[in-house]
Amino acid sequence: MATGPGQVPGPPPALLTEAGIIAALTPALPGRPDVRLGIGDDGAVLRPSPGTELVVVTDALVEGTHFPAGMPARAIGHRALAVNLSDLAAMGATPRWATLALSLPAPQAAWLEDFAAGLLGLAAATGTALVGGDTVAGPLFTTVTAIGEVPAGQPAGRRGARPGDAVFVTGTPGDAVQGRLLLGSDRDDAAAQYLRSRFLYPDARLAAGRALRPLASAMLDVSDGLDQDLGRLAAASGVGLELDAGLLPLSPQLRTVAGPDAIARALTGGDDYELAFTAPAVQAAAIAAIAAAAACAITRIGTVVAGSAVRWHDGGREYPVPAGAWQHFGAGA
Amino acid sequence: MATGPGQVPGPPPALLTEAGIIAALTPALPGRPDVRLGIGDDGAVLRPSPGTELVVVTDALVEGTHFPAGMPARAIGHRALAVNLSDLAAMGATPRWATLALSLPAPQAAWLEDFAAGLLGLAAATGTALVGGDTVAGPLFTTVTAIGEVPAGQPAGRRGARPGDAVFVTGTPGDAVQGRLLLGSDRDDAAAQYLRSRFLYPDARLAAGRALRPLASAMLDVSDGLDQDLGRLAAASGVGLELDAGLLPLSPQLRTVAGPDAIARALTGGDDYELAFTAPAVQAAAIAAIAAAAACAITRIGTVVAGSAVRWHDGGREYPVPAGAWQHFGAGA
After folding, report:
1. How far apart are alpha carbons B53 and B20 in whole angstroms?
2. A43 touches B: beta carbon within 8 Å
């Protein structure tokens, strides 16, 4: 709260101790049979399900690099977990457990309450148990490690795309970067609100990822921009891609706000946390059924080809991807 | 290298890209059957051993909080993993896999090579596979999450101490904090070298922890000072402790350098990464055998009592623990 002239500022809010921080982040949840020991010992003791393999992902967020200073604490808590859940979604895994390392310069109760609400709310919604962590004094950053499970022996990863496969993307990429660009704006119509919320509260495509895993030949999540991430999929699989910018699923809100830049936002914007994947074209009907069941648009945007080139077309002509690809907040051109 | 007058400075060392950082941290190791997919996809896919439970630990290190600026990169890499292995040791777990989040302000090849040598050297020595991670631009910090395995159903943690149990500690606590205090000193005799090395390259007590697990009623690792950590064990178990400072296993090097402060170093110094534990007194012979097998001193320093007070004695009188307990580098009094 700003203190105007004539107002007497109250005492500064009390800083939390390490024990206070841990208490705020320890959810009062009913016991889970897969968590034998949770927060409070040197380590958590967990029971993996028989017949499964573990999927382990780690993503760190640093203030000023991955999110702007002053972002709402609830959104930071949500994002700290969501970016990891998105990696689990890309592996087709079911989230089970997570740990959090949280570094705070000045831990204040109200901030931490919001942060915990964002993180623990998403954890509860996705069946993820926060089982341990570390709180330290330092610059604002989070590192979450999430552990999921997949049925043993199923294919996974980004290396299996084959020439002839179709290329798909979930959702409407480009919204998040446009939402970030609107953070400092006072534009407040429905489109702006929607886009900001897509940046602040990304949704990991867990249900779609789990259902797509047995069908997809390669899959990854779109965190650094669709063009750059599809380039990684192509390189890992040793294939090329022919992609149609005209097929990109652009949200009406993005079209409204970005106008002629909408395609560029979708191709080079980051922080979408959608899934991009390849699958044999014969799976199109099954994929459409998955889209309906997961309530998540899935759009074909191209074809896997031999070679190593990733080319975008629009209306029959080559579409040059704009330079200055997204490199997370603050690091881009 | 310092550049004196008349010397022409060379070009600044080139900064590594994210791909270069990942390459430096990806060990060229033979495949392991428990790692189906390692670094290079959105997540690692791991195969837990049948009949085991997982132990998951996370520790973050921030420059200026947990280690001083300018500490050798090799020591930082070693420590990033070692502090986590110490938590696994306290749980009696066998380390299997780890992930690393590494934030660097200006990633330089020589620094990263040393960091990787420290981390990957310790990983190889302990059978820990680095299976994934995240590299970001930001202040210098590391977060390692390590996953180990324990036989299913064994007791673990710090909550089982019972009145009458004996209290033990491994190794010679106090060395590490004295080594840290010597970091800026030009004292370079054998004692100083030994103590500095105990701070820079802590050894997790993995073999001892694994062997002690079935015997110990409660166990934790000593990272914040023996007095403070034993206080946590007592609180978690709902017991008191009567402890004899005269029994503390002080190294000759610590006695030489710290003189009359040696006991205070052992009680309130941090970063020891020894194990403190309780066990029924009848286990003394078995514990002596474990000490011999693990090549690690284990010393009885007291007894668990009813109540909640943790009291130190020396020669029959109460020994007041000095104030200003260790709160990691830079945060203490």
Report:
1. 35
2. yes
pLDDT value, residue A328: 44
Strand partners, B144: B59, B100
Q: Do B138 and A97 touch (CB under 8 A)?
A: no
Dihedral sign computed on CA atoms, order A223, A224, A226, A232: negative
Would the CB atoms of B53 and A36 count as touching at under 8 Å?
Answer: yes
Minimal C-alpha gap between B62 and chain A (Å): 7
CA angle B11, B16, B20 (to 5 degrees): 140
Taking residues A140-145, what's their average pLDDT? 96
Angle between helices B73-90 and B190-200 (to 10 degrees): 70
How far apart, in Å, do the first and last CA atoms of chain A sit? 34
Instruction: For B275-293, write each residue's pLDDT tens digit.
Output: 999 999 999 999 999 999 9
Mean pLDDT estimate for chain A: 90
Is B62 within 8 Å of A37 when comparing Cβ atoms? no
- What is the pLDDT at residue A9? 58
Q: What is the pTM of this model?
A: 0.91
Give the β-pairing of B129-137 and B44-46: unpaired
User: What six digits make up the tokens of B168?
Assistant: 């033990």
CA distance between the termini of chain B: 34
Residue of B nearest to A105 (CA): B65
Low-confidence ranges of chain B (pLDDT < 70): 1-13, 28-30, 155, 324-333
Non-local CB neighbours of A201 within 8 Å, separated by 6+ positions: A75, A78, A79, A82
**Residue numbers in B near A37 (CB within 8 A):** 156-157
ipTM: 0.88
Chain B CB contacts of A148 below 8 Å: 43
Q: Do B157 and A41 touch (CB under 8 A)?
A: yes
Contacts of B125 (CB under 8 A, 6+ apart): none
Separation of alpha carbons B150 and B49, rounded Å = 10
Q: Choose among B148, B59, B64: nearest CA to B101.
A: B59
Q: What's the mean pLDDT in A15-31?
A: 78
Confidence of residue A10 (pLDDT cuts 50, 70, 90): low
Nearest Cα residue to B150 out of A100, A144, A48, A33: A48
**Where do the DSSP E strands lie in chain B?**
35-37, 44-46, 52-62, 94-104, 129-137, 141-151, 166-170, 218-222, 240-244, 274-279, 298-305, 310-314, 317-318
